[in-house]
């Protein structure tokens, strides 16, 4: 019998900014050409890295945005490449920065919550939009 695999540890954010839309905010989603998918900015933690620090680093690397962290959001647990993966998420307000396409992320879009929920490729990412709205008392 083989021992269960340790989960891949990752962290990310549901990135948002204030907007003049009816919801008063937009959510930033990234497109990853390697997977041809739309998701929240996230990535694997470096050895010994604190999940909070990793979430902020990933947002900066993938979107070019500096962010102000807010409430913790639900942790996603799923299989990736046959291995368990655990992604800790936080709400994060984009406060400054500019997006530059890179090999990992070629597009960043800002969408109202309902459109963001529809654009997300993976079903597991959609409840995070609702969790963000609840954490901001907008749900």
TrEMBL record:
Keywords: Hydrolase. InterPro entries: NUDIX_hydrolase-like_dom_sf (IPR015797), NUDIX_hydrolase_CS (IPR020084), NUDIX_hydrolase_dom (IPR000086), Nudix_hydrolase_domain (IPR051325). It comes from the Bacteria. Its EC number is 3.6.-.-. It is an enzyme of class 3 (hydrolase). Coiled coil: none annotated. The keyword Transmembrane helix does not apply. It holds the Pfam family NUDIX. Residues 6-134 form the Nudix hydrolase domain. One of its GO terms (molecular function) is hydrolase activity. CDD domains: NUDIX_Ap6A_hydrolase. PANTHER family: BIS(5'-NUCLEOSYL)-TETRAPHOSPHATASE [ASYMMETRICAL], DIADENOSINE 5,5-P1,P4-TETRAPHOSPHATE PYROPHOSPHOHYDROLASE MUTT. This is NUDIX hydrolase. It comes from Streptomyces sirii.
């Amino acid at each position: 019998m083989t021992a269960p695999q340790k989960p891949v540890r990752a962290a990310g954010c549901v990135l948002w900014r204030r907007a003049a839309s009816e919801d008063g905010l937009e959510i930033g989603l990234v497109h990853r050409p390697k997977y041809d998918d739309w998701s929240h900015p996230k990535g694997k933690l470096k050895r010994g890295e604190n999940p909070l620090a990793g979430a902020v680093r990933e947002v900066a690397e993938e979107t070019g945005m500096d962010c102000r962290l807010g409430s913790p959001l639900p942790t996603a647990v799923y299989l990736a490449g046959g291995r368990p993966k655990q992604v800790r998420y936080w709400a994060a307000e984009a406060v400054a920065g500019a997006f530059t396409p890179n090999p990992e992320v070629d597009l960043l879009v800002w969408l109202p919550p309902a459109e963001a929920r529809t654009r997300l490729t993976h079903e597991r990412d959609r409840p995070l939009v609702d969790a963000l709205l609840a954490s901001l008392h907008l749900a």
